[in-house]
């Protein structure tokens, strides 16, 4: 029996709900994602300052710098959360407050 990360599963379900009604330019990953280019696109699309982005993601500012410098690849769960934030900007505002 294969292990399924519960956070990944939860974010996958939430992503399906949030992106279900996206008619204009849905944010999806190809079969073999390039995490760095996806991360860059999603990060810029949020419009958040780096410290706010880190807070919403639940990571340190230094971790965001590591992602941006391509030293560390965001996990699949982190990528899903980024896509959700990108697709629904009000979500990030709620998480910051």
Automatic annotation (TrEMBL):
Question: Keywords of this protein's UniProt record, alphabetized?
Answer: DNA-binding, Transcription, Transcription regulation
Please name the InterPro entries in this protein's record: Cro/C1-type_HTH (IPR001387), HTH-type_reg/antitoxin (IPR052359), Lambda_DNA-bd_dom_sf (IPR010982)
What GO molecular function annotation could you give as one example from this UniProt entry? DNA binding
Indicate whether Aminoacyl-tRNA synthetase appears among the record's keywords.
no
User: What range(s) does the HTH cro/C1-type domain occupy?
Assistant: 39-92
- Protein name, UniProt field: Putative transcriptional regulator
Which source organism?
Kosakonia arachidis
């Amino acid at each position: 029996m294969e292990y399924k990360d519960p956070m990944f599963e939860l974010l996958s379900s939430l992503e399906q709900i949030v992106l279900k009604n996206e008619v204009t330019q849905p944010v999806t990953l190809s079969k073999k994602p390039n995490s760095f280019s996806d991360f860059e696109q999603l990060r810029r699309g949020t419009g958040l300052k780096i410290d706010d982005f880190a807070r919403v993601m639940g990571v340190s500012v230094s971790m965001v710098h590591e992602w941006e410098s391509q030293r560390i690849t965001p996990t699949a769960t982190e990528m899903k959360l980024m896509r959700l934030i990108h697709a629904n900007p009000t979500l990030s505002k709620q998480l910051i407050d």
